[in-house]
Amino acid sequence: MAAVAFRNVTKVFGKDVFAVNDLNLEIRDKEFMVLVGPSGCGKTTALRMIAGLEEATGGDIVINDVRVNDVPPKDRDIAMVFQNYALYPHMNVYDNIAFGLRLRELKGFFWQLTHMGDAKQIKQDIDARVREAATMLGIEQLLHRRPKELSGGQRQRVALGRAIVRKPKVFLMDEPLSNLDAKLRIQTRAELIRLHRSLGITTIYVTHDQVEAMTMGQRIAIMKDGILQQCDTPDVVYKSPANRFVAGFIGSPPMNFLGATIREDGGKAVVDTGAFVLPLPASHPAAAMVGKEIVLGIRPEDIYDAAMNNPVATVQGVNTFDAKVDVIEPLGHQYVVYLAAGPHNMLASIDTGTRIKENSPSQFIVNLDAIHLFDKQTEAAIR
Ligand SMILES: Nc1ncnc2c1ncn2[C@@H]1O[C@H](COP(=O)(O)OP(=O)(O)O)[C@@H](O)[C@H]1O
Ligand SMILES: [Mg+2]
Questions:
Q1: Could you write out the DSSP letters of every residue in 186-198?
Q2: Residue that terminates a domain, selected from 201, 216, 249
Q3: From the CB of 40, is ligand 1 less than 6 Å away?
């Protein structure tokens, strides 16, 4: 059982590097929370403060309602898996996994048993836990091997085994998959999720990869420049990004951003991009902002070839726009299409059944229910 919280946590390096800036984040018991953001946004620093490897400049780190800022790392009952995991080269897999356990348990809980002369019992307990972890990770046949006889993926699993075997209150993982090749990363991603489901241990997982965040996190916390931008389920973050940064960071290919103005047209508010005009429902808060310059966001997957049979009907002059097709990139299941609509360069994900051609004009439609508007100055979503 462990809930973890950051309450107004700040970490300043030197005089003015705000690695983490007034962070408020509650991670629930048993939750798989992903911290995601570009390199340098403060993810590792946040994680290291939970582990006690970095001291907060201000605010409270809280585990199960107890402020732990002053609790030494070894007493926090936390296991951390790093990107650059180091296995002991001279030990086989079994001993690598058992090592931390022996060290830890001999010092603490098992110490009494040792002194009661029940060393055999300890050995059996450790053995059971090592084998249980190895089975869970599918490396039970590798227990006798040395690290140099393992593939990168297998080594990473041994590193995970070393963390799992301790059955900590909290797992902290800092980009643990980034040294693996693409295929292995996807496979290990699924294994980690399965592992979390069966162990139910609160996990805080750091990555710069938005796909990893979206596929793994029960909730994801997006950071930029030490500041939390949004924390919610992948679905909410994708459909309702809080600001332009989150909107551009989550989703691939990335959201298109177009400078636009709210205008009145026949008594109704519209979004005018200069190249095309889209209607705004009267209920939209931006409808009351006539004259305001905004940023229109449209995800590539919300643009369709108007000539095709789409989930969104083509309504001429309402959701349509004309554009020149510059480049068509085949992705197998879809095309990524580079469009130019007036001054706006855009990306669209189009079904492979399309008959559009490079260097030709075509008509496209926008799913009006999925457009995003952002304040040009503050970059906050208008909704
Ligand atoms: N020990 C340190 N001394 C000085 N600056 C640091 C130190 N650790 C991290 N930083 C700075 O703090 C910011 C956040 O770093 P970090 O938490 O490692 O980001 P991330 O893990 O998201 O890439 C960066 O600007 C980084 O240069
Ligand atoms: Mg980092």
A1: HHHHHHHHHHHHH
A2: 249
A3: yes
One domain for residues 204 and 276: no
Q: At what angle do helices 152-164 and 119-137 cross, to 10 degrees?
A: 140
Q: Which residue has the tokens 């629930």?
A: 28
User: Do residues 237 and 301 both lie within one domain?
Assistant: no
Cβ–ligand 1 distance for 20 under 6 Å, the answer: no
Residue 179 lies in a domain: yes
Question: Does any domain span residue 382?
Answer: no
Confidence tier at 105 by pLDDT (50, 70, 90): low
Neighbours of 115 (CB within 10 A): 9
Q: Do 235 and 266 belong to one domain?
A: no
**Would residue 181 count as lying in a domain?**
yes
Neighbour tally for 124: CB within 10 Å:
11
Minimum CA distance residue for ligand 1 atom 2 = 13
Ligand 2 centre distance from Cα of residue 35 (Å): 10
CA 48–ligand 2 middle distance (angstroms): 10
Residues 208 and 167 in one domain: yes
DSSP annotation string for 27-62 = EPTT-EEEEE-STTSSHHHHHHHHHTSS--SEEEEE
CATH of the domain at 309: 2.40.50.140
* Residue 13 CB less than 6 A away from ligand 1: yes
pTM of the model: 0.92
Q: Which one of 249, 284, 312 terminates a domain? A: 249
The alpha carbon of 39 is separated from its chain's Cα centroid by a whole number of angstroms, namely 13
Does ligand 1 have an atom closer than 6 angstroms to the CB of 41? yes
Label the pairing between strands 170-174 and 66-67.
Answer: unpaired
* Tens-place pLDDT, residues 41-99: 999 999 999 999 999 999 999 999 999 999 999 899 999 887 767 899 999 999 999 98
Give the total number of structural domains in the chain.
2
The predicted-structure confidence for 318-361, as pLDDT tens digits, reads as follows 999 999 999 999 999 999 999 999 999 999 999 999 999 999 99
Q: What is the pLDDT of residues 131-157, one digit of tens each?
A: 998 988 889 999 999 999 998 888 888
Q: Which domain holds residue 310?
A: 256-375
d(CA 367, CA 259): 18
Residue 364 lies in a domain: yes
Looking at residue 231, what is its pLDDT? 98
